[in-house]
Protein 1
Amino acid sequence: MRSDSGHTTSIWMDTADVPSLPRLTGDVRVNVCVVGAGIAGLSTAYLLARAGRAVVVIDDGPVGGGETGRTTAHITAALDDRYYEIEKLHGDDGARLAAESHSAAISRIESIASLEDIDCDFERVDGYLFLGGRDGRDELEKELEATHRAGLHETKIVDKAPLSFWDTGPALRFPRQAQFHPLKYLNGLTRAILRDGGQIFTGAHADKIEDGEPCRVTTSDGFVIAADHVVVATNTPVNDWVILHTKQAAYRTFVIGARVPRGSVPRGLYWDTPDPYHYIRLQEVDSKIDPAGLDDILIVGGEDHKTGQEDDADERFKCLEDWTRERFPMVKSVDFRWSGQVMEPIDYMGFIGKNPGVDEHIYIATGDSGNGITHGTIAGMLLSDLILGKPNPWTKLYDPSRKSLRAAGEFLKENLNVAAQYADWAKQSEVGSYDEIQPGTGAVVRRGASKVAVFKDDSGTIHERSAVCTHLYCIVNWNTAERTWDCPCHGSRFDPYGNVVNGPAINPLEPVGSETPSSR
Ligand SMILES: Cc1cc2nc3c(=O)[nH]c(=O)nc-3n(C[C@H](O)[C@H](O)[C@H](O)COP(=O)(O)OP(=O)(O)OC[C@H]3O[C@@H](n4cnc5c(N)ncnc54)[C@H](O)[C@@H]3O)c2cc1C
Ligand code: FES
């Protein structure tokens, strides 16, 4: 499948067909417009279409072309920020609701896959959190107690994860978590939405999102979708200028897919405790990848860095491969390497609900951490309830307007880091001449007071755009692995020609010479 979020190919993109969907060719009037066809957008659209609402979904790429096509799809209530930390910021009740909502999301995915007969390799498996780095057993004990207080009574410390070839040391076992093939699941949701009268248009970029009665979503082709409610499910909101983006930070994370003999690694979800952590699972593959039917793909992720602040993907893939080969001696070859972006909220919980500020009918879903499959499904459940006027016990926990005063330390750390990125304006050119830019790569050069993002395509042709991010004017950096311009401030990303790949930017990089981004 074609991905609009980067150059690398995930195992999912290589093993699922993506439905061919029409482009928008005129104005539309509906009850609900959902912007973004990832797990959050399609889960919301599915539940609303089932409830009889007229729904339209638009996406500027294909279905699943964003981070849902780049995930590793551990479906779990084992939250990567830890329950004992969530308790500190959200209290015992908050931690309990977090456990309840993520567990409910796993069950909801299972029931939708079953009801809609979606052949998406959904499988219940146990999850194991084991120690890494200098972490000691007390880390697991603290989390064990916190999970019990949060209502996950079946978690238990075991002597080791069930891997005969590697002594992981003690592990916290989370029974009955799950895994699936994310794109096959989205294909099933797509089919069901269309069956229930919903409409899905791809290749439709939302340029402007306005509240009102009705709300108006204007696409870059100039068409207008008028809707009673709008759900902005673009992974990071493209309708919010500042507030949300001071409360979350974008990180790039890396994944390899290694071929191992089928059955040599027990199926399960595995994570270690350091930050960044490693995340591991298995995926069976079909005859296209494994004609003899002898192998599984072992998926291992980690090595995260802040988006746009490093460009050393090859080293990170190498570290992942070394780490994996040391612990999984049965690895035959590394067949997949890809990366993706996760949004880390400063207080650990996603932001799902009404857009902060004065908007009355606009909803957002963002701040997924590494738990975006369950967060995206929670978004579907919570946002459909809010739009249908039904009470939902998770509303307050995920409220995007919540005050995160107890997370002041994280807030300060992330925002000081953002402030420091503006120093890039003073930097000199990254290359002395265009000859130094290799085909298929880019570099930022200084031209007078301007900064120019220069991309040399595979045939040697130069393409120039302003290097000033159209969100809040930081200078973008080249991402060699994904062939994108990545902003180090809030995670906006642009393709080599300047088109938006990830928000919060909604407008493309400007032509060279106009440093003032267009207003939205
Ligand atoms: C490598 C990796 C591993 C991960 N592992 C896990 C895991 O094991 N478990 C887990 O739970 N989570 C995991 N996550 C997180 C999870 O995959 C994501 O949080 C989740 O898929 C995000 O879904 P989404 O629907 O919010 O966003 P997306 O899937 O990114 O969908 C957003 C869509 O919006 C579209 N869009 C954006 N802007 C516009 C616009 N202006 N107009 C029209 N369309 C627009 C995009 O094209 C995109 O298709 C992982 C993420 C990564 C990258
Ligand atoms: S993403 Fe905010 S300035 Fe670029």
Note: The radius of gyration is 22 Å.
Protein 2
Amino acid sequence: MSTSGAAPAPLLTEAELKLLQALIYQECGMHFDERRTHFLHDRLLRRLKECRVDSFYSYYRLLISPAGKDELGRLLENLTVNETSFFRHKAQLDLFQKHVLEEIFRQKSARREYSVRIWSAGCSTGQEPYTLAMLVADALAYYYLRNPLPVELPLPKPLIPPPWKVEILASDINYTVLRTGQEGSYSENQMSMVDFGYRLRYFDKVGERYAVKKALKEIVHFDFHNLKTEYLPQRNDVIFCRNVMMYFDEAEQKRLVEKFYRCLNAHGHLFVGHAESLLGLTSKFQMLHKDSGTAYQRIEVRA
Ligand SMILES: C[S@@+](CC[C@H](N)C(=O)[O-])C[C@H]1O[C@@H](n2cnc3c(N)ncnc32)[C@H](O)[C@@H]1O
């Protein structure tokens, strides 16, 4: 018998688990199989206690009620895994910078179309989109070192040489990580993958932390987007969606890859996580592989 006076934790029945799993899947595409049921149970229990609800069924009823909309958002935030780092999977980033970007600059310059749009879908706390911003800024500078512009640039030289316009959209389903990304302030620990050259050029030291410089911040825009929804940002040259699809089941992965196809410009590129692949999900992309980095390029259908 409990002597502490605390009420025993409510039991999660099979039926309640199924209802909650289905609701979460319908809302954000996350799929909790047997290996992740323990994690789901733990997070649900935390929210139950916070809301002072005494059964999983009552909690489910709250979530589907109009009054439970905010709580549903909080639950989803508690279920996301936000692990990330700067310069994650270097070989893939080399492929992006040295081959994909180079080709984009070359082709767009020839067409006199000077805008590049990159989307980091499932950006977590911002390390991925800021990494992409640093890589694009350096790649453009290097491109113009070899192909000088006909005009003198004003001093100090802008991060993105005109007439180019670079836009990096960073989106996530979790408002808390989006706020952290927008602040752009990182601890020494979080900076472990950022070498001193990048630190010097793109960060200011503020106390113990590193703050992303204003010029770099200006090309990254953080916004809420749920990848489960149909209407997603269009006209991207490149989409990075790494370590997100692995939490979806195969049916949802197929739907997402189909949506990404439509969100990309012709011949656009999609980068997925190291442990993820498009194999068996689509025949609309061709795989590019270089020095252990992989990307997928949109295949264009001839009219
Ligand atoms: C493991 S992090 C990956 C971060 C970064 N892409 C990387 O690879 O380092 C996965 C991110 O996907 C987000 N996410 C999960 N489901 C999502 C959905 N349905 N829509 C948008 N973002 C989602 C999570 O909130 C989380 O921040």
Note: The pocket of S-adenosylmethionine is lined by residues 28-30, 80-84, 88, 122-124, 128, 172-174, 177, 226-228, 242-244, 273 (CB under 6 Å).
Protein 3
Amino acid sequence: MSGTNQSQAAGAVPDSDQGLAAVASAYQRFEPRSYLLNNYAPPRGDLSCPDGVGPWKLRCLAQTFATGEVSGRSLIDIGSGPTIYQLLSACAHFEDITMTDFLEVNRQELRLWLREEPGAFDWSVYSQHVCLIEGKGESWQEKERQLRARVKRILPIDVHWPQPLGAGGLAPLPADALVSAFCLEAVSPDLASFQRALDHITTLLRPGGHLLLIGALEESWYLAGEARLAVVPVREEEVRQALVQSGYEVRDLRTYTMPAHLQTGVDDVKGIFFTWAQKKVGV
Ligand SMILES: C[S@@+](CC[C@H](N)C(=O)[O-])C[C@H]1O[C@@H](n2cnc3c(N)ncnc32)[C@H](O)[C@@H]1O
């Protein structure tokens, strides 16, 4: 681990930092419904144009899983938020999936969808799109059924703790794979904190296991209803260096430039990165 002291290494306390307290405080105003509308309803949620951000993210995930190299029994999604799209390709390859978030309101939003309760966000356009690009002839209803069956638990998480899931042993560890989308940079006040958070989540992954990380490039803020969240702006090369520093081999790193028509005033994101990284063995 980089930059941790002894008590942190023992898992006793989180990184103590005024910046982290400010981040945690800002998230208390996070509104899942507004976040979903800002990012997953049209125009960003319009999946009909292949150049859009949604199709790009889903394509990166589908193509990576199609290699057949990312598989195992257990997968943890870090900072799931109120979204499930990030697991639509993953769920065919892992039978035990753990979803996680810092906020109870987001965990509750996930429960609504998993239990098919009234008022749940409708992800069917995403499920249909993933079935289409995977080309396996699966129906979107089967896809959603499989994901619902394979999500075994939704847990609280704090990536600023050396043991992000606590010491309770509620998820099978170490996991065979991690997925994380738009979390680390959106909860870290600076690059050093981003690096430590990456170190922390890496402890949840077995050596040789895979991390699929998606995030915002050069973003400094985003909105979720009343909440205005600060984001640490990161560049592609900083992401690559952080992964190497945390003990990964970078298998793939791709970027997407946000087109003008998708710059909607809900954030100042310039682009997106997708990376497939494999935790090195014996380092
Ligand atoms: C930008 S959202 C990403 C949500 C979702 N993964 C997506 O792809 O849209 C960032 C998420 O990080 C969560 N979060 C905030 N503080 C956190 C922390 N300390 N540890 C882990 N997650 C945190 C928030 O609750 C929020 O759901």
Note: Residues 27, 30, 79-81, 83, 86, 101-103, 106, 157-160, 181-183, 186-187 surround S-adenosylmethionine (CB under 6 Å).
Protein 4
Amino acid sequence: MTSYKLTYFDFDGGRGEVVRIALHAAGIEFDDDRLTFQEFKEMRQSTRFNSVPVLEIDGASISQSNAMSRYIGKLAGLYPEDDLQALYCDEVLGTIEDVNHHVVRTFGLEGDELKEAREKLVSGWLTVYLRGLDELLTRGGGEYFADNRMTVADLKVFVQTRWLRSGALDHVPTDLIDQLAPGLVDHQERIAADPIVSTYYASRS
Ligand SMILES: N[C@@H](CCC(=O)N[C@@H](CS)C(=O)NCC(=O)O)C(=O)O
């Protein structure tokens, strides 16, 4: 039997979360290796690109969360078979990574410097990307981003919008998405209520 191990931080979000949900959806048992930040510091150099998530399949280690999401997404039936719909799905996965790139640049800042950087992020890149994602959702028909059903693209956006609306990021208003792109709020609620997602979180609690 194939063995799977996913190494990522010990919280329900971030780049590893879509892979965890997709593994659950596929009915694949896996070693859910959850690290504290201190544990990550200690093992960081042992990973190929000094980063997590790392997915090990029969001991072979894989990097790049979007590649993992696509692969496990295929096993779970959460990735389109149609090439054009797969393109739509990939576009969304890449878009969220671009958003992360801008958000991560504000990590480690403090005080006024953090406030200034976050306010610039909110009025700049976050506004651009949230509006763009709203357009992509409309293109998909308004409920899902691709294939008229839930795919890993929806999971990726769900994890991101839940995070942005949670108040975890100082100086990012929790109602930013409600103001700019209410369709993404409805989308977050739709995905949270999907049986795949709700049973995953029920299994965690
Ligand atoms: N492109 C990679 C990026 C991986 C990445 O940067 N992960 C972050 C955590 S979410 C990390 O490990 N950062 C390490 C560091 O900045 O020291 C992916 O999508 O998996």
Note: Residues 111-139 form the longest helix (29 residues).
